[in-house]
Structure formats: C-alpha cells, structure tokens
Amino acid sequence: MPPTQKELAKLAGVSSGTVSNVISGVTAVSERSRRKVLDAIKALNYQPNLIARSLRTNRTNTLGMVIPDITVPFFARVVRGAESAAREAGYFLSVLDSESNHTRETAIMGVLRSQRVEGVLLVTAGGHKWSEQESAALLAGVPIVCLDRLPIGLDVDSICVDDARASEMAVMHLIERGHRRIAVITGPLTLQNEKERLRGYRQAMQRSGLDVDPDLIWKGSFEQEDVAALCRAGLANPKSRPTAIFATNGVTSLAALRAMYAMRVTTPKDIAYVTFDELASEEFFRPGITSVVQPAYEIGHRAVEVLLRRIAGGAAARPLERVRLPAKLIERESSSKAL
Amino acid sequence: MPPTQKELAKLAGVSSGTVSNVISGVTAVSERSRRKVLDAIKALNYQPNLIARSLRTNRTNTLGMVIPDITVPFFARVVRGAESAAREAGYFLSVLDSESNHTRETAIMGVLRSQRVEGVLLVTAGGHKWSEQESAALLAGVPIVCLDRLPIGLDVDSICVDDARASEMAVMHLIERGHRRIAVITGPLTLQNEKERLRGYRQAMQRSGLDVDPDLIWKGSFEQEDVAALCRAGLANPKSRPTAIFATNGVTSLAALRAMYAMRVTTPKDIAYVTFDELASEEFFRPGITSVVQPAYEIGHRAVEVLLRRIAGGAAARPLERVRLPAKLIERESSSKAL
DNA sequence: TTGAAAGCGCTAACAG
DNA sequence: CTGTTAGCGCTTTCAA
C-alpha cells in the first residue's frame, strides 16, 4: 500500500492539513514545517493520491479522446498534437480506440463520463447518425469537440481541414494539367467530410466549365473489395477510362492503387492520380503520389485549445467554434505528366 | 453536476446501499427494487462515479502504458494489441507518450503511480541506465512489464522478439545468397535490443565461417545526420563497399536508405539490403525491402497477459517471465539478386 | 501559521 | 432483502 497523507503527516510531526498546504502551495506554511514535510515525502517516496484529490475537488485535470484507429498514421499524428497541447495546459489526456465501431464508441463516451474527464475530443467512427436521444445525453454531459470526421446530428465545436476547398485545389491541379475526364473515388458518403470532399470535386469541375459525369463519381468505402470492384468497372475499358483519378482519403486510396496495379494500370503512365492524405513514407513510395496533406498535429493541438475554451466558458456562454484549417497540395510524380 | 447515488436512491425510494447492490449485482435485490432503481438510472441518465468507487475499493481497473512515440507504426500496433487485451480482461488502458525523453518518462511513471494504475506496460525511451534509486523506487511501486526495448538495470517481466535470432536469420539470408562482405547499421547501442541484434549479426557471420570486419559494423543512431555520415563513409569507395547491408531497425533504416539514394547507390542493383521492421505500406515501396517483421499486435496483447498474471501473483510470488517471440523474414526485391 | 473536522460519492459490513 | 453507517485520502473551511 502506498503511504497516505496521514502517515506522512505523522512522520513529519504536522497535521494532514499542513501537508496539503505544502503540496498545493496555496496557503502559506512556515519554512520549518515545509522542510519537515518535504523530507518526509522523500523518505516515504510519497505520491499524492489523485483519486482522492479528484473526489474532493471534483476536478480530474483530464481530457478524454476517442479515435477510430490509432494505427492510421493521420490519427496518430492528431493524437500527438492533442497530447502535447494537453500537457502544456496541465491536463492529462486519456486516449481510447473505438476500433471504428459506433457501439464501442458510445460505450467509451460513457466510460469517460464515469471517469469524470472534463472534456472530450471526439473523432467519430462515422457512418451513423446520432439519435436525438444519444445526442441529447451527450450534450448534457461533458463538453465535446469533434475533429476531422464531423458527426451528423451533434451540434458541437469542431475542427477539421476545409475539405471542400482542399479537394477543389486537388482537382484544379489536374484540370490545369489538361485533364477533363477526372474520376473521383470516395470513402463512405455517410461521413460528412467525404461529402464535403466530393462537393469540392464538383465545384472544381463546374467552375472550370466541365461536365460532372455521374459515371465518374465512384462512391466507395474503406473496404478493399468494394474499392477494387469500382476500379475494375471504371477502368476496364481503356477507351472510356478517365485520364485522371482523385481519391478522397488515404485508406480508400491505397485500396484503389492496389486494384489499379493488379489490373496493370499504372500512374502516371496510364492515368494521373491525386489523393487526399499522405499514404506512407512518401519519399520511397514509387511512383510518388501527389497528395493533399492535412496539418494533423495542428488539428490535434488546436482541438485541445478549443476544448479548453469551451470548458472555461461553459456550454452556452460562447458561440460554437468551427475551425477550418487549410491543407497543402504536395505535387509528386503521379500527376506530373500533363495530358 | 452529474447525479449521485444518493439522489438516485431518493428518486427510486430505496437506500443508497440498495442502489449499490443493484449496480454491482453482488448482493441479491428484490425484483421490485431493481426495477425502481433501473428506472431511476434511466431517468437521471446516471453514470456511477468511478473516482469515488476507486477511492473506496482501492482498485482502478486501469493499466498504464508508456511508449516513446505513438506515430511510429510499430508502437501503434503494439498499443492496439495491448488495448484489446486490456479490454478483454475488463481493464482500461491509459497510454502516455514519453516523446523518447527519459525525464518525461520518469515523470509519467510518477503520474501513473499517482493515478493508482494497477500495472504498467513500459517501452523505455532508451539510451539510459536506470539508477539504483530509480530502479528501487519503481520496483517498490506498481508491477511493470517491459516491452520491446528492455531497460538496463531494471529487473522485471519482459516481452520482445528474439532479437539475436531474428537478426541472425536476416543475415543468414544474405549469406545464402552469396554475400560475404555484409555491413550492419545499428541504432544506438545503449539499447538492449540493438545490442542483441548486433550479436545476431556476429553469430550469423561466425557460424558461416566469415570474418567480422569491424569496419563493416556501423554504429548508428536514430538521427538522420549520423546515419547519413556513416553511409557516406562506408559507401564512398565502390571497390571497398560491402555487397549487402543489414539495418537493425526501421528508423535508422529509413535514414540509411535516404542517404544511399542521395548518393545514387540503389538496391538491389548496387547493393543488397535487409532491414528490421516494416518501413511502410510495403507493397508500394519501391523497391520492396526485405524485412524482419515483428508480431507487434501480439507483443502488446501478451504483455498485458503477463502483467495481469504478475498483478494477480504478487511481486515475488512467481519467477520473472521473459517472453521471446519469433519474428518472420519477408523476402522482397532488395535482396533478390544473388551475388 | 496550524490543527481539527467535515465531507466529496461510493462500497461493504452489519443489524434488523 | 434492505437501511444505516463507517471510512477510503484528500482539500478546505474554521478556530485557535
């Protein structure tokens, strides 16, 4: 059993209250008492019991974070950013993985509430609409900031990349290189950000006076097989094949590339290719894939800042923040050949 | 303020103890009371306060995990494995990132103790020896299991790949393809696992009756510049250049490849190459790099099992477990050309 | 500047 | 089966 404050107080020959004062530093304590307490802390290797402290103060100094999959590099970087921001502000961050499962996600939110975290950073598993009931329960609980994948039917502070704009930029890049028949392959359109990215594609086409051919809108998912089927259907005939593809997220994109390569359709030779998200250690990826890169670390970092403002400000005290950050286009080989 | 058990009890018209019994399910409760309590829980959207429960029961049902960098894919997968094992056992897992910094690592261990986690999974930042004092303090605290990078001067349960064996296997693979002058480039040799991997290299050479040329042992680090300098020195002269390189970890390996490519030394054309660890989405990495692949998920998963046994068994009750898992060699292009 | 004491929300013993 | 109660380790009045 770890030593308690009481034992510490006894050893130091002072009262438990004095020990507390020494540790918190709020109330003045005589130098003599301070010394004795400090010595006793060393002697016993005392570590204050944060559980007891939290129960008493009703503060945990902890933020929760829910993400769909820590092994996705983008999320790992977001977590890093959030962690460092939390630490800078003197908070702990408790990260839990929902394994892209909404049921588990809901369970986790419950656990975090039970742990009395002071706020939650949420990257939803996606693909579902929060019911009125869920939503109400959530909003009545701790403050929430949503990142990246914004939930449908949940009105909270949020932060993500300006998806439509980023997407538009990527497609414009292809158009500028002479492409007219540009296919877009998306993730599940139940996700808000996927919808936005598709919107950006449409905008780029329309603003450039190009037709949006429904046959070139390939509504995909995160499943290898779905994506492969779409690619096979869309690329089978070299005549009607698009001259360029834009993939709206990294997971779908890897699946698409895999399918293309299996069909011996290569980039940039047979088709130009641009993707949302970095796919890997890009410098060794051959050919290099032109990518829309999100400021992942910053998204995590700023999400914590927004959350802390919300915690300080209270639920209704301030308007909802909706931060939209710009993404960058990194040009590489896959889109290097002008048509 | 979230509702408390007392308020709940009042609403349900029973005592607080009965509420507790309903929730824990340990003591029998009449169906009537049960109903009333359950209804009240719904009505108030009650979530038990785990902080209070922990203070009372002296149990947190939480394990801590300290890793050097969540953005390293290997660690992310280890975390996933640990998380799922923890969940299966009804534990929470609290993951903290030391940012490869021993000072921060020590601070984190203190925090985890303060949070009264029941055990800790530790991947040390490495590069330091734990002082007698640190070690003693640590061992007196919660049970610890070390993963992957085993600490020096800390006697605890541990789990990692059989590094020497895995290394030997990789080097044998090169020898079988006719290589005689094989360089090894390592990470910091202050890390136990790096030492082991170097030992494996030596073993393979010696068992095959080959000389171990000290000039072919490149003692590197995780720093791009150090590694680049070693590569430049070792590869400058095409005559005396080794015919193959074995890199003992992923981070160093990426740095080495970068340096090689900058020098226009390519693999497999100019030199054969084998590395410890997967470097990225290997199927798109060109050329594909022959790799020693570790069972990352399993390492995390089994580490939790070991830790739970230790928690159940007590400090001295059982002998130290030292689990060593086999790694696999995945052959790819970079070592495809026999000499 | 210090000590005594109340009480955070919960569980577990105990008496009824 | 149920209510009462003590107390987990801490912070925070309040008096001295």
List the main descriptive attributes of the protein structure presented here:
homodimer; 339 residues; alpha/beta; 434 Repressor (Amino-terminal Domain); Rossmann fold; six-stranded parallel sheet; six-stranded mixed sheet; 12 helices; 16% strand; DNA-binding
Number of domains of chain A: 3
> What is the CATH fold-level name of the largest domain in chain A?
Rossmann fold
SSE topology string of chain A = HHHHEHEHEHEEHEHEHEHEEHEE
Structural class of chain A: alpha/beta
Helix percentage range of chain A: 40-55%
Quick gist of this model?
Two copies of one chain form a homodimer. Chain A is α/β, with parallel strands linked by helices. The first copy, chain A, has twelve helices and twelve strands.
Q: What does the model show?
A:
Two copies of one chain form a homodimer. Chain A starts with a helix and ends in a 9-residue tail after the last strand. In chain A, 47% of the residues are buried. Chain A has twelve helices and twelve strands. Chain A is an alpha/beta fold and 339 residues long. The mean pLDDT of chain A is 92. In chain A, α7 (132-140) links the parallel β3 and β4 (144-147). Chain A has three domains: 5-48, Orthogonal Bundle (434 Repressor (Amino-terminal Domain)), CATH 1.10.260; 62-161 and 296-326, Rossmann fold; 163-294 and 329-335, Response regulator (Rossmann fold), CATH 3.40.50. Chain A is elongated. Helix content of chain A is 44%, strand content 16%. In chain A, strands 2-1-3-4-5-11 form a six-stranded parallel sheet, with helices on both faces. At the A-B interface, α4, α5, β2, α6 and α11 of A face α4, α5, β2, α6 and α11 of B.
